[in-house]
């Protein structure tokens, strides 16, 4: 049992179980998965808005879809009413009878019999500090750490209700619903209508979403917020920022909150390994640079394709962080410029990293198997953007 960071240690839900499954079982699952995936793809069982556990799909493309919906609302002077749902213990609470019902509907009967045997009569035992618990039956959920588990979950949630005028974005159990309109009341009404259907669907299939932890946010460049929305007669809390798939989205999509969070995380991580990268460290500069690229640089480069469009003052925050770290690694005197240090270490600046990452990302989108991701390359609403922003978009792509 692995303790979740920041959770109270006295609660059972604060621990994440790491499953140890039989190797033969994993081999069988992998063989079975190679037979199941072609059927799912041919029959288009998995909806296009589901980007989790699918080849050539990543979190960045899904966050990009959400951002493009928000930017489109900005362009049309609309209010974008959005809900980010928190699904509790999604993989652990999958209803076996409901899952088998959907397997029987989507897959041939022979697969149904195999998967019925696979899911039923499973048992588990917990080891903690060398002690073993009693053996218990598994009454719900997909096997943690299994090969088939993620695919079974996407099959179980494949019929999530959608509605016209509402953008649905899912990555595994992370679900976002967005609706836009010039009238904030109408935007929330459209969203509420779809949210009611989603709530009914969740109750039918015994999936629990927490209304108190879920977030409702209004993305707009105008004054005011959209009307509150409810789930199970509980009003969802309204916020000015939301964290979705590791990225912080504020109501005006300025990326200031996200960049500040990356700066703080980078500071904390750098302090933890400072003894390895300090001026008196015996490691070579090449090894220090390797540590920086593998541990520190990955913190701020995540989502660079999106937050790279932020204003220069925000981007300079990360650039100053990189300048300081590289000066520490090189033990450079004060009279050596940051430009010279970057060239000597063959390191790109943040602006150069944004440009190259954007070029690669566009190529990836153009060859993406999902039409929803490919459509992200068609930016046709830049008429209201300032000239500076138009140039930045051109540089990024």
TrEMBL record:
Pfam families: RVT_1 (PF00078). InterPro entries: DNA/RNA_pol_sf, RdDP_mobile_element, RT_dom. Residues 1-249 form the Reverse transcriptase domain. GO terms for biological process: DNA biosynthetic process. PANTHER family: ENDO/EXONUCLEASE/PHOSPHATASE DOMAIN-CONTAINING PROTEIN (PTHR36688), ENDONUCLEASE_EXONUCLEASE_PHOSPHATASE DOMAIN-CONTAINING PROTEIN (PTHR36688:SF1). This is Reverse transcriptase domain-containing protein. It comes from Euphydryas editha (Edith's checkerspot). The lineage of its organism: Eukaryota, Metazoa, Ecdysozoa, Arthropoda, Hexapoda.
